[in-house]
Each structure stands twice: as C-alpha cells, then as structure tokens.
Amino acid sequence: VSAEVEEAKATLETDPENLQAINVLAYNALLTRDLDNAMQLVDRARAIDPDDPDVHVHLAILQLSVGMLDRADTELARAIEQRPKWGRPRLWRGLVRMYQNQPELTIVEVEAALELGIRVDEQGFARQLLADARNPRPAAPAQAPTRLQQRHRSPCLHVCTVHVRECFAQGFPGHQVKHCAAHACLPGRSAQWHHVLIFGPMRVLQHRW
C-alpha cells in the first residue's frame, strides 16, 4: 500500500488531475484518519468525475462517519451498479448494515466482498466485521455514567456518530461531544477502523456534500 501511495503522490506532481492517483490518496487518507486531507481529495476527485465508483465509495465513507447511513448506502449502491465485481463497496455496505443492526445482511455483504476480492488490510476488517455480526457483544456497564452518557449510550451495535451528531444538534460543547462518543461505542472494536467513525464528525459535520 505504501508503494502505491508514493507512486500516486509522484503521479500528481506531474499530472495533478489524475483521478486514479487522487482516489488512491483519498482512500489512504480515510484509512489513516486524515479526514481533512480526505475531504479535500474527495472534493477534488468529484470535480473531475462525480460518477466515478471510487468517488462514490469515498463519499460514502465520509457520510458514514457522520451517521448519514441512507446517503452512504445510496453512494455504495451506485458504486456497485457501476462496478458490480468490485469487493470494496460491498465491504463498506456491510459496515452500513451492521450500524443498521442487520447482522444477517452484514454477513451477506462481507462474504460477497471477500468472494469478489479485497486488499489484505481490508480482509482483516472483513473478518472482524463477520465476527461481530456472528457474535454480537453486549456493551460493558458504565461506571457512574453522567446524564450525557446515559442519554446517548447504546446497548447494541449502533453508529457512534449518530450520537455525536445529536449532541452537536443539541448544542453540547465539543469536549463533551467527544466524551459522549467514546462512551457510546462498544468495547473491543478495531480502533484503526472505528477512529474515523468516532472522532471524525467534529470536522466532517461542517462539510457539505
């Protein structure tokens, strides 16, 4: 992956409108939690080709990060329609289904992604999603929860950022929103893949698509 990223950077130095290179860097930025850069790259790619399947997937991930599940689902459906034998959008739609509390459909989507073929790092994510869907874990009891935590804690796997968005809508200060998000999520999840979903919204919410 690092070699692919370096090659994309080099390509953009001589060809700043190269959509493939922009998409490589956008996906890498999403996975490494560099949301500011990811948003800029996604906007840049959309300006070149808003109907590109990669663009739909990357936009879906950003929308997912702020709990816009229906919009993310729509973007992923467009990517699948345009490139039906591509595993990546099926993988991320599996995550959407998980956040919609539909573990059976999560399994269908993730198994389809694995069958179609995905990257090695995505395979690890897929295995974790399958494990979560087949063996849902209850939330750990909170120690002396605050009123904010009690209001926004979910007893089942639910998109953390929906709680974050609600907190912002109700005018809670930023530091409380971050605290709320940390306590709304289930323990034992992959920090690498869920960091975007927990802490991303504080920047992403102000972005308009």
Per-chain topology:
Layout: H1 2-14, H2 19-31, H3 35-48, H4 53-64, H5 69-82, H6 87-99, H7 103-116, H8 120-134, H9 147-152, H10 160-169, H11 174-184, H12 191-199, H13 201-204
Helix pairs in contact: 1-2, 2-3, 2-4, 3-4, 4-5, 4-6, 5-6, 6-7, 6-8, 7-8, 10-11
Biggest sheet, in brief? none
Shape designation = globular
Question: What structural class is derived from the secondary structure elements?
Answer: mainly alpha
Residue windows where pLDDT falls under 50 for at least 5 positions: 140-165, 171-199
The DSSP helix count reads: 13
Order of helices and strands: HHHHHHHHHHHHH
Q: What is the overall pLDDT average?
A: 78
Task: Please give the number of β-strands.
Answer: 0
How large is the share of residues in beta strands? under 5%
- Rg over CA atoms, rounded to whole Å, is 17 Å
* Fraction in helix: over 70%
Distance between the termini: 28 Å
Care to give the gist of this entry?
The protein is an all-alpha fold and 209 residues long. It has helices at 2-14, 19-31, 35-48, 53-64, 69-82, 87-99, 103-116, 120-134, 147-152, 160-169, 174-184, 191-199, 201-204.
Written description of the protein model:
The chain has 13 helices and no strands. With 209 residues, it is mostly helical. Helix content is 71%, strand content 0%.
List keywords for this structure.
209 residues, mainly alpha, 13 helices
